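Students often ask why we bother encoding 3D structure as a string. The short answer is that it lets us treat folding as translation between two languages. Here is a chain of 484 residues written in the first language.
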Amino acid sequence: MGSLQRFFKDTIIYGIAAVLPRVINFLLVKVHTDALPTDNYAENTNFYIWIALLAVVLTFGMETTFFRFYKSEEKKDSLISTAFISIAVATFIFVIVAFLFSGFFTNIFDFANNPIQLKLLIGIIALDTLMVIPFAYLRASNRPVKYTFIKLINVGIIVIINLVFLKFIPEFKESGRYIPSLLDTISNSTLMINFIFIANIVGSAVSLLLLLPYLLKFKWRFNTVLFKKMISYSWPIAVAGIAYVINENLDKILIGKMIDKNAMGIYSACYKLAIFMNLYIMAFRLGAEPFFFNHSDKKNAKVTYATILNYFIIVGSLVFVGIVVFIDLIKKPFINSEYWDAIIIVPIVLLSNLFLGVYHNLAIWYKLTDKTRYGMYFSIFGAVITIVVNLVLIPIIGFVASAWATLLAYGSMMLISYFVGKKHYPVPYNLKKSGSYLLAAIAISYISFTYFRENYFVSISLLILFGLMTFWNERNELKNLLKK
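And here it is in the second language, the structure alphabet:
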């Protein structure tokens, strides 16, 4: 099987692992927005912002580092155990500190009105960080089916608990149907929002149990020399990760502080509609990251990377235009109508995430050349843009400013990474072709959303025309790829 064919195969399988669970979780947005008022939905958003930040801090770039060293390190046991132990120690320290200073963290995390959320957060972040290296091992050792199976088990548990406690029990009570006394007591005595987090912690616990056999098969020893090399590579990635969390989440926090919790809630809910682009990018990254490292010593590596970016932009552009064209149909089954006031941000956020996906493609140059500090610089630069634009424009144009800040941040990071990368690791990207697809997608999306919104005859015609134009331009490359 050729390298590109293997890449696409792994991406599809990992795509199932990434896409299906997140699609199902996205479907829960309707359950959550039906069950929770906008200010409580903001509380849910706040909880997962802290989860995202702590995940980056406690894993400190070790996942990407693991892939970087997996191929070159002969002693796999030493690599896996060193990476896992380092993350486990960091997690253990955090758990101890968080419990000892629970009052401080409760105030910092804004959990004062619901202190049990701190315990749930500690449990979720501890379990999730312990799973990072086992999951990375499954990916690096080409076991996408097992990886996908465990991910699906996780999401299945989360969905069941959410549906039972946020949908079925409230509906049964409202209709006067019988509910076992224990469930009725629980649902009355516990804030409903906590069941979202309880579902998460149960799913994570079961997933970790399923991963234990892969952990127990290795000889455990901590290699101090190897750890020093790994931490030297990983710490800039960790800083970049923190900056990324700021880019993704600071807007929501600032909206809550500078406007109100209701605005934060509706913005966060509509932001979730960009999940379709996020799913595509995540599926791509799950397959691409180990592929890029494993393929780096091949003679045609740079040509392959350029080809992959071109197809990434093609598919991403089609996803972008497709979602914008059908945005008013998509919002109805997925988000409660009380949240629709922020729907205007969706095209901007979609394009932002497409730029981020291109940036991840381009970023392979500093990962392969061990110059990860550049990723840190780019992400910090993006975070500064996010902070400045939000602080300046939110008082003027409201929450729409946050969407524009995200677009400017990711667009700038994409451009800087390309121009700096040309000097350190030149890849023959076809900018004329790929750029034309991006520009056409932006133009069609703008015309559809601004002038022909819900005029599906015109909008769908534009989408089909864009698809046909793309296929015609790529027909020869696609034929050659299929022949291989």
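Translate back mentally: The mean pLDDT is 84. Keep this in mind for the problem set.
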